[in-house]
Amino acid sequence: MKYDVLQISALIGDVYDAALAPSRWRDVLRKASQFVGGPAATLFSKSAANKTGAVVYDYGSDPYYRQLYFERYIKLDPFTTGQFFAELDEPISSADIIPYDEFLQTRFYREWAQPQGLVDFVTSVIDKSMTSAAMFGVFRHERDGVVDEDTRQRVRLIAPHVRRAALIGRMLDLRAAEAATFAGALDGISAGMFLVDADARIVHANGAGHAAVAAGDFLSASAGRLIAGDNEADQLLREVFAAAGDGDAAVGIKGVAVPLTAQSGERHVAHVLPLTSGDRSRTGATYAAVAAVFVRKAELEAPSPPEVIAKTYNLTPTELRVLLAIVEVGGVPEVATALGIAETTVKTHLRRVFDKTDVGRQADLVRLVAGFASPLHG
Hints:
Layout: H1 5-20, H2 25-36, E1 40-47, E2 52-59, H3 63-73, H4 78-82, H5 94-97, H6 100-103, H7 107-113, E3 118-128, E4 132-141, H8 149-171, H9 182-187, E5 192-196, E6 202-205, H10 207-215, E7 219-222, E8 225-228, H11 231-244, H12 248-251, E9 258-261, E10 267-274, H13 280-287, E11 291-297, H14 305-313, H15 317-328, H16 332-339, H17 343-357, H18 362-373
Helix pairs in contact: 1-2, 1-8, 15-17, 15-18, 16-17
């Protein structure tokens, strides 16, 4: 696996520039699709609870099929259930969710993917909550072939940077502020923000940042340096600041999301954006800063009921998909029609679900799932 180091470094720099200039995401996704290998790439969100979703930024996908996906096929897409099994930044493909020969039988493939010449999709989860996930993904055309290890490695090289940029961009409302000064735009955000030099000295902070430091809890300042209350987090931040002086690639994937815990147990997370490359370097030079640090309260990361069910009974992605379909759709014939696979395939997976959950009837599976959805469960 050989990669052009300069190409990767330039792509990472473009990704971080897009965090502060959202209009650049389409071009970033174009370059990402070329690097990973595919005709299209997208940043999108999905709610597995109600089978809905939306594209945030996109390059290369067909508008007709994109609309059709969210109107009809999102409920049939194995990835909609498969997101429960995905670890942050770790790429997954169709074969990680469902045996590929079964994937080729699905209505989703036959009616949506195949007409476009698409044979696979590689995606990386960049953020998860109890009910939804945000993802970065690249489509694979038949001329590209199915996802292989080289494809996965290429995603691993850029996915953490996409995650950092997307999470920071979500904290900022820079669509309306791109014409404003960088510091002026950041001063108005609710997240704590610091501009720091390579030695962690604070050269600028917004109101929320000053308040966090003044409280002296999970963050403080000593001799003008930003200090995290947790020694491990503080060491990691110092390493990231020191590396930021050497450019985006030097930072690597450190500091994508640094956990910070208050004395009360309340959790916060810090994201570090390098300021020494790309268009961001102008801001860094102006403030003698190598990085911007964004700190926000961490959202609840409790697992969703389907994820808990899968882990409790050691279900595979396909088994979970059949289980949820049985609950939502009905009997074996209806599930086979909905998922676009043979009834014999559904029965095979259903038998395994019965064995693992130690129940013998479909009605019992409905009650089992309902029990996990109840706030009184466990």
